[in-house]
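Quick note —
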Amino acid sequence: MEQNVARHLASTLPNTLPNTLASTLERSAAAPAPHASAAPAPAPAPAPVTLLGLGAMGTALARSWLAAGHPLTVWNRTPARAEPLAAEGAAVAATVAEAVGAGRLVVVCLLDDASVEAALEGVDLTGKDLVNVVTGTPGQARARAEWARGRGARYLDGGIMAVPPMIGVPAAGPYVFYSGSRELFDEHRATLAVPAGTTWVGTDPGFAALYDVALLSAMYGMFAGVAHAFALIGKESVAPAELAPLLASWITAMSGSVATTAAQLESGDYTRGVVSNLAMQVAGTPTFLRTAEEQGISAELLSPYFALMARRLAEGAGEEDLTGVVDLLRR
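Predicted structure written out below.
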């Protein structure tokens, strides 16, 4: 019927209509009727997950996987912590061995590396995919990867860049560094991305921990500066809430120096892009120390860094940026 309509329209077009349109309709009339497109393939069912550890972070991870429909088996040393999750649909294992036996993907979220060792002692890990999101050192992660391989498991280390309330909240922008078995990461990426975004940092199992601790170290350095700033105003009629937005915007503005430092370290030229050289900045440090003294607060959060700056200057690096302090920290 559609072909007949097309032929009729082509034959009755006025002569003033462009010939190309008539030709198009003729071709349409001669063409076979299109077939209905195939229905899209159904999405794969959510993969089962075993989770060991139900502290604040573990519980947040568990709830995100349950909300996404993943069959979840949980174990915790204190069984009472599993009860709320059982009410939400999780299967509660009485032992670690039972939990590990429930599926291939095993996520470990315990207190520390020693807890991982203790919990999995004597448990058969053959054919398992072990994802360890316990905060640890790069060396611990590398040793744990060898330990897992020796027991027949693939291993992936994770560093969670979030606090529990951020898990499962896309707007909060949490993410997890992963390193180790790339094959394991690719296979389970969709499942691992449910609680938080995934950031792959390499096949070296220690890199996730390295990135994690590097970022957290910078965070604590920032917290130290923030603590000193609030302490300075403590005895004055300046409300913390009044200083806070100014402090936050200043820290944000200064964050651009991170890229400058990286470029200087890679080039080896610490004078590249210098705005305020080391000599000038060291000359200003007595003002900060005296202000702290006048305000009756300790300068112990600033003094170690100022000492490194002075040491670098003594080496003749006055025209450099502050980047040379990095070299002083290397043993």
